[in-house]
Write a structure and sequence with these properties.
- This protein is an alpha/beta fold.
- Helices cover about 30% and strands about 25% of the residues.
- The chain has helices at about 5-10, 50, 70-85, 100-110, 115-120, 145-155, 175-195, 215-220, 285-290, 315-325, 340-350, 355-360, 375-390, 410-425; strands at about 10, 40, 55, 60-65, 90-95, 125, 160-165, 195-205, 220-230, 235-245, 255-260, 260-265, 280, 295-300, 300-305, 330-335, 365, 395, 430-435, 455-460, 465-475, 485-490, 495.
- Helix 13 (about 375-390) packs parallel to helix 14.
- The model is unreliable at about 1-35 (pLDDT under 50).
Length: about 500
């Protein structure tokens, strides 16, 4: 590899030297930092450079395979667009199925201005029409013609990146497996000799990863994309199957295609080394603060409030949000069962007016149904809201709604990553959880109670004449807290906690 190419690539042992966004400490938990100096090229695809430990192998070919509609072409196009716009690395896209206009139109909704990049000579697209019905096996077949076209395009713009989409089209009319294998090997070797970082897309085969079953063996890195629907919920997953000479995450990672392109969400990117604070913040109820050794919750901690329907969870969450706003802190309130107007009206009935905080842009209420889209898209949306609004506190009411957006495992995984993310950002999080009437009270449907720092239990108790509401601090890490049951009423002036549970 030439010296200038080495400078543009990134060493996996220290990606920060190139001044780019990947932090080695962000590697998936359990993965050691790479010891080798294997050069890597950042893709610029959000999340992928984290799980791959710095991107794709520089100057080598990577196979991206999957079934139709899983995002292969977009992965390749985003790899080139990010390279041209973020890393000053021009790229060549060789398409066997879509014309330049079709490709440009398809990715324009993501903000990719392909035609402008072509005009600036930072991107070249070569559409090679291959019609299977017009191919006739007669004599030797080789890829010399493709090599000539590709070499011309690379030299024309000084390309450092190449995408071939899809490789099966080249051999669609051939039955001689010997020729196919020979030319595939030549293609991968030719790309490596040219020193370009290449992405070659391939269609998923019935047995092996690809239709011919050879591409995965000659590639230095293999990435599979999958798109399946379960219980009417669509989920995309990505996995790095192979990466020669590099440590990488081996899990299946959910990903989605949103307004900015591909976003990969690592399952365990965040390790348990976030900063902690000894500062205390009010729960919004002075009496509850007293139950928490007099100071309220620790700043940056995660709090779970569980209870049956109508036990007062949302009202307590609203008091917590109002207390933060009174401290001039921003609060993001994610309401999964009520609209903003409905929530503001309902809280007024207990003497809590949230509208002034909304007007002062201290409180942002984001209402969304759990079934509106998949869990991964929810997670990305929450991530973007937090990133944009920069709140000091977040309320998720109720987090148990997430179980309706996927399987129990997926919902637990999503909730875990959300809690880890908020802790890493130093954001105090309060989450409510609905407990079914017949379920054990000291259990949550998402089984996240062990992840949170404080757990408040709210319940109704029937007496011969009425129903009483009770509040109990089940746990609160790092402080001596009350173990007494406290009865309370919710009046038009807010919460009224008694001294005892009677």
């Amino acid at each position: 590899m030439a010296a200038d190419e080495q400078q543009r690539s990134v060493s996996a042992s220290d990606p920060s030297e190139a001044g780019r966004s990947v932090n080695p400490t962000d590697a998936p938990a359990g993965l050691a930092k790479p010891r080798s100096g294997l050069a890597k090229t950042l893709t610029g695809i959000e999340g992928f450079d984290v799980i791959s430990g710095g991107g794709l192998p520089a100057g080598r070919a990577t196979l991206v395979c999957g079934a139709a509609g899983c995002g292969k072409t977009l992965f390749g196009m985003e790899f080139l667009v990010r390279g041209a716009t973020a890393f000053d690395e021009p790229g060549v896209f060789v398409s066997f199925e879509e014309t330049t206009d079709e490709l440009a139109e398809n990715v324009s909704s993501l903000g990719f201005d392909v035609k402008q990049l072509i005009d600036q000579r930072r991107l070249a697209i070569d559409y090679v029409r291959v019609e299977r019905s017009e191919i006739e096996e007669n004599g030797e077949y080789d890829l010399e013609g493709l090599f000539v076209r590709l070499a011309y395009a690379i030299d024309l713009i000084g390309a450092k990146r190449v995408v071939l989409d899809t490789v099966e089209t080249l051999f669609g009319g051939l039955t001689n497996t010997g020729i196919i294998r020979s030319e595939l090997r030549r293609l991968f070797r030719w790309l490596k000799d040219k020193g370009v970082t290449a992405v070659i897309t391939g269609e998923r085969g019935d047995g092996p990863l690809t239709r011919h079953g050879l591409e995965e063996y000659v590639s230095d890195c293999v990435v599979t994309l999958d798109h399946h629907v379960e219980a009417q919920v669509s989920t995309r997953r990505l996995r790095i199957v192979k990466y020669r000479g590099s440590v990488h995450g081996t899990n299946e990672y959910p990903f989605l295609i949103d307004r900015d392109g591909i976003v990969v969400m690592p399952l365990s990117t965040l390790s348990l080394n976030h900063a902690v604070s000894s500062e205390r913040v009010s729960s919004g109820l002075p009496e509850l603060d007293q139950m928490l050794s007099g100071g309220g919750f620790y700043r940056g901690s995660s709090v779970l409030v569980s209870g049956t329907a109508g036990s007062g969870k949302s009202s307590l969450a609203a008091h917590f949000a109002a207390a933060a706003c009174r401290r001039s802190e921003r609060v993001l309130y994610i309401a999964m069962e009520e609209s903003p107007g409905q929530m503001i009206r309902n809280m007024r009935s207990i003497g809590l007016d949230l509208q002034p905080y909304v007007d002062q842009q201290l409180l942002r209420i984001h209402s969304v149904r759990a079934t509106s889209f998949g869990l991964e898209q929810h997670l990305v949306q929450f991530y973007r809201l937090v990133t944009e609004f920069q709140p000091g506190s977040v309320v998720l009411d109720p987090i148990s709604s997430l179980e309706r957006g996927g399987t129990d495992f997926d919902a637990n995984s999503m909730a875990t990553r959300l809690i880890d993310f908020l802790k890493t950002e130093g954001i105090t999080a309060l989450m409510t959880s609905l407990t079914d009437g017949g379920a054990a009270l000291e259990k949550t449907s998402l089984e996240i109670s062990s992840l949170v720092d404080a757990w408040l239990l709210m319940r109704d108790v029937e007496t011969p004449v009425d129903r009483k509401r009770l509040l109990f601090v089940l746990k609160s890490r790092g402080m001596a807290h009350s173990h007494r049951l406290r009865s309370f009423r919710i009046t038009d002036r807010g919460f009224d906690l008694s001294e005892t549970g009677s």
